[in-house]
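can u do me a favor
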């Protein structure tokens, strides 16, 4: 076996790894995995600086036309109470988040066609009238024309995870769509000039270390600006209810490997990682992550945005939660992003 430390060092200084290299890296154990984490931490520091970028997320609708086998919001789950926030509710929620100090708002929902292109554009424009915040949309697959309209209305970023780079596995988990159409969306978004985010789950049944290596290769090939990587959590009302929760250790390695390959990408400590194990959420900030997202919609909606099972703490105001988040970031010695945290502009 070639010297793994040399391989990690070479990737950090620009060598483009192949599938075999990445397979080895994501399957490391013990002190070799620690070496990867430390390398990722240095690359993060060099390309992204010390600040953790903070995003407010508004989960504005849990209606979804999709049939994702892992997701509690899939259209076949008739037990979940569905909600939609009105345009006014979304804009007021955005105002509250802006008042609390957020400079990026992520608007996320299921694939809910009630939000027509016109409605989405109105929401984006109204929020932009409040302040020059960055707006990230995360509402699934839409046509090129719709994405174009969102961009022209002022949306800056778009998140749509590829979930798994194994085409057959993707197609079996998503009977309503296909891997090809997902990748096309990512290409369209890049083409339109969005800061584009993808990502994938760790531990989805059928995934191997080779799949994870392929996932990271795909992030690189697409040239993503952001990538959310989190463990799969089984939801009792989905076909994958009996599957095993994804490994937090494998998640940490996938984030670290993505960091050394992608260099300056925005990599969040995902909510699902924090749900599985709060210690891992701290560790991931020392292994390549530089972004955190905080839900800001009213609690009555948060409880219904039931993608996977998770606990809810005591109810705080948006401002109180933001202060708590600042304290949390300070607790592990990192700075707090004060700007919009655009990709490629962190070190200006
Ligand atoms: N476990 C972990 N992550 C999930 N997601 C959806 N369902 C689950 C689950 N059961 C993630 C997917 C999706 C995002 C909205 O949430 O990656 O893109």
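np, heres the sequence
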């Amino acid at each position: 076996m070639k010297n793994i430390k040399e391989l990690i060092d070479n990737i950090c200084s620009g060598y483009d790894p192949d599938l075999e290299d990445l397979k080895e890296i994501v399957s490391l154990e013990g002190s070799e995995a620690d070496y990867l984490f430390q390398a990722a931490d240095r690359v993060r520091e060099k390309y992204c600086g010390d600040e953790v970028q903070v995003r407010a997320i508004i989960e504005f609708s849990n209606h979804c036309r999709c049939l994702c086998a892992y997701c509690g919001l899939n259209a076949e789950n008739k037990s979940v109470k569905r909600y939609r926030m009105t345009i006014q509710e979304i804009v007021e929620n955005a105002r509250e988040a802006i008042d609390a100090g957020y400079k990026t708002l992520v608007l996320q929902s299921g694939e809910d066609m009630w939000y027509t292109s016109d409605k989405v554009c109105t929401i984006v424009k109204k929020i932009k009238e409040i302040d020059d915040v960055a707006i990230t949309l995360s509402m699934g697959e839409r046509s090129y024309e719709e994405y174009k309209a969102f961009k022209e209305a002022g949306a800056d970023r778009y998140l749509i995870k590829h979930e798994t780079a194994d085409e057959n596995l993707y197609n079996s988990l998503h009977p309503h769509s296909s891997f090809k159409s997902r990748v096309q969306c990512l290409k369209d978004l890049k083409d339109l000039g969005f800061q584009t985010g993808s990502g994938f789950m760790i531990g989805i049944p059928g995934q191997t270390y080779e799949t994870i290596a392929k996932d990271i290769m795909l992030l690189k090939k697409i040239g993503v600006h952001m990538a959310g990587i989190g463990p799969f959590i089984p939801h009792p009302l989905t076909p994958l209810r009996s599957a095993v929760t994804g490994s937090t250790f494998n998640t940490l390695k996938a984030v670290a490997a993505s960091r050394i390959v992608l260099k300056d990408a925005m990599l969040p400590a995902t909510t699902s990682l924090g749900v599985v194990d709060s210690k891992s959420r701290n560790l991931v900030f020392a292994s390549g992550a530089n972004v955190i997202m905080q839900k800001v919609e009213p609690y009555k909606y948060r409880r219904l945005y039931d993608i996977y099972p998770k606990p809810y703490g005591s109810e705080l105001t948006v401002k109180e939660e933001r202060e708590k988040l600042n304290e949390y970031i300070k607790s592990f010695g990192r700075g707090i992003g004060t700007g919009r945290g655009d990709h490629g502009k962190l070190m200006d």
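The CA atoms of residues 112 and 277 lie 31 Å apart. hope that helps!!
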